[in-house]
Amino acid sequence: MVLKKCNICDRRFKKTEHFKRHERSHTKEKPYECNVCHKRFSRSDVLSRHAKGHNAASSSTTTGVVKSDQHQTSSTQAYDQQHSRVNGNGQFIPSINPVGAQQTQILPFIPREISLTTPDGLPSSSLDCLADISAHQARTHPQLNPMVMGHQQAYLGWGDVTAAEPSPYRVPVFGPVPNDILQFWLEPRGDTASNPSPIDLMRDASVSFVDDQTPASPRAQQNGHPVENPSIQSPSNIPSERFARVQRYWVTPTNNTGRLMNTLWRDVATSSLDNILGVYSGQPFNSPSGLSGDLRYGLDEECRQNLLATFGQARLSMPNDASTAPRMSEAPFGSPQAFPPAEILDMALDLYFRNFQPLIPFIHIPTFSAKRTRSPVLYVMCMIGMIILGTKGTTSFVSKNFNLVLDKITGELAKCAAGSETSVGTVSTFAAAFLFLNLAAMTGEKEHIAKSQMLYINLMTIAQRHGLFAATEGQILDMSLYEAIPDVDARWKAWSKVESVKRLIIGLLLLDSSYSSFLSTSPIIVPEAIQFILPCEGAIFDAKNAMHWMQLIRIGKRILMPTLVAPSENVDLPTLDSSVDSLCMHGVLAMVQLRLCEAYHRLLSNRANYPFAPCHTYAMDGRARCLPTLQLQIADKYREALERLNPNAVVMWHNMCMTLTADIQIFELAAGRSGPLPARKALEDIAVWSQTPAARRACLHAAQIYKAMVNRKASDYTMFHSVLAVFTAALVLGLYTFMAPRPPETTAGCISVELLDDVDWQQVGREGFTSFMEPRGNHAFTASDNSTVNFIRNGGTLYLRGIPVQGGYQSARRILLDYAGLLKDSGKWSVRKFSHVLHIMSDVLMDME
Fold it and tell me: Looking at residues 95-114, what average pLDDT do you find?
């Protein structure tokens, strides 16, 4: 049989009708025309099914089709009369051939063109749908022999009533459906030529990897063994076209990145970019100090146009409150109100570096240039600056653009997940997502945090899958990486890019710690497997140029730092240098905080246990019992650093100690998070908890959080976790004061503690962590020389600024108002709702605007 070859795609066919049908898929020829509506079709079976839709002319349109198969129909009817009988009930009973009793009964074959109609007034049933689907299957796959199809129909329809003779008691399953609607849903795809069926692929000789057109030798044909083509014995002789076809039909996308951590440091250091967040432009780099005009970071009108082309073309979503910025929502595209001018963007970028950069200093400022920074990163930096600016226009612009930027960054992160982005591009996308999640926490809008949860989960999951938190499992970072670069300026830039990535990893640890606490969920990063390289000192990271960088190295500044592994019961916290900076300390504390959060949600989430102090439950768990010990190690090893650094670090430590001794979910329920019924039950639990040593220690940590935030300097910017800690401390101390009983007369006069006095936590030690947890009865601890230890053990009277704190509503109300006022002055984070909750708890009516 002669194979017919398509001149366009080189496919081969054995049957002429298949070949002509395939050619019409290329030429779009439609030779079959409907006699009623004159609509044209490329296949006759599609025309026949279309003709059934013309109910008025159904008899005239199907006459020719029925006549064409009259002989076959009559023969099947004769066969039907010979091999069937009707019983007394009028049911159709197929007879069995006595000669071949085990052979499947052959029912008459019904051609596709014959309409399987139902009696008048009877709606379409599931059998009609199955008939149309079977016709569709016959079109999309090669036609089988009629006798074989008859066998299949007999097997599938054994004992069933045919559609031409429906049973009078059959109940319709589906409602009537017009034929044109069925035709729409069952019409074959137009890309069947590009997506052939498996049988077509087997018939297509061009898909095979071995040429089967070479005739076999007579000896090989007699032996029944195929003969291999000697021209493809070598891999170099395989045509490239075959590999290209395999690549085109391969299902999964190509992963070009692999595991990022395996080659991260080399890829970052050897990239041609000057900054890890930059984009290559082919022009020599000028430091920010050499930029023209008053633009420190190079954000001019050209840079604004680039941002406008990337983000300004999309339709801005309407704000929740139409009165927020009525003129901006109605402004036409390109007007001054539609997109901020370059002066506002430059001002916002400057505010970012003044207020947010000191919190997570991972951007290398000496090599930063707005013109060379990737648009998503630069745009989010400007949006953070606009929130810090806090004007009506900037806040409205951020709110209107939030969903647009979220979708943009989510799409970029999807490329990183698929491995279609480079190593440097992946790191830049991680930075954009990290900044955007911080922006969501700064806007003060509840729905922004809710919409960003999926981005937070994807970012942490992808970063962990790439090994960013497993430094020892990736490429070793040593001096050989920098010694291979002879030029000093290039070596400085390579080191700065590596250092930026190290600092970004710590920022991701802090983000997971803050978001998991804020959302009351388990952290995504596995705490027991965390390994990260400590960042270098901020002084050498801020070196203005390569010469300054080399001078700092000569006086003893280090450009390589040790790797820190997750502490546990057998692994102590490392001893850090006395000159440790805030970012390094926050990385260590975030690692312990993630372990604490994981233990809480694994053991106590939604199942609070008596006596409602988590440390009591942790002491019985093999993985969590080391948590109190780690807090003592922090107080012992990092005492001087915590006193010297900004208050965010010491607030983080006090918050961890407070969550060890107080079940925070009970306090949130008692405040009314889930309504009145859970609140009353939680208040009863707090009344029991307030009589334990753990409760009294929790109150001391809550008061120290208030003290640290009140005494902070104007240059000490507040981090997101510090705001969460202030709100939690307000609930703990306020509800303790509200529910705690008055101290007995035996201890009220001799034990007193001022909440805002300094506490020597090394002397306090493990008091309240592992001591007697039951409510105080006849049991009493021995007296100590330290008044704080005596208060934790036996209770006493608390003083706040010299005023005794008596149990009850009035004292609790005053404490809640103090913390609410502190939250208002805690920076640009989303603290407005926290402050409102505390004011509502203190029964003070506030204007919610």
Answer: 44
Diameter of the chain measured on Cα atoms: 115
Q: Which domain holds residue 647?
A: 623-841
**Within a 10 A sphere around the Cβ of 456, how many other Cβ atoms?**
22
pTM for the full predicted model = 0.74
Sign of torsion, CA 605 610 612 616? Answer: negative
Tell me the per-residue pLDDT of 310-364, one tens digit each, with 9 for 90 and over.
Answer: 887 654 444 444 444 444 444 544 444 589 999 999 999 999 999 999 999 999 9
pLDDT value for 89: 46
> What Cα–Cα distance (Å) separates residue 597 from each residue in 540, 584, 829?
34, 20, 22
DSSP 8-state class, residue 206: G
The three-class DSSP label of residue 135 is helix
Share of the chain above pLDDT 70, in %: 71
Q: How many residues does this entry show for the chain? A: 849
CA pair distance 104, 106, nearest whole angstrom: 6
d(CA 376, CA 648): 29
DSSP alpha helix (H) spans, 662-692:
664-671, 676-689
Angle at 787 between CA 783 and CA 790, to 5 degrees: 40
Which of 56-70, 271-285, 529-543, 572-586 has the largest mean confidence? Answer: 529-543
In total, how many domains does the chain have? 3
Instruction: Mark which of 186, 202, 218 sits at the end of a domain.
Output: 186
Question: Cα–Cα distance between 318 and 832 in angstroms, integer?
Answer: 22
Radius of gyration of the chain (CA): 38
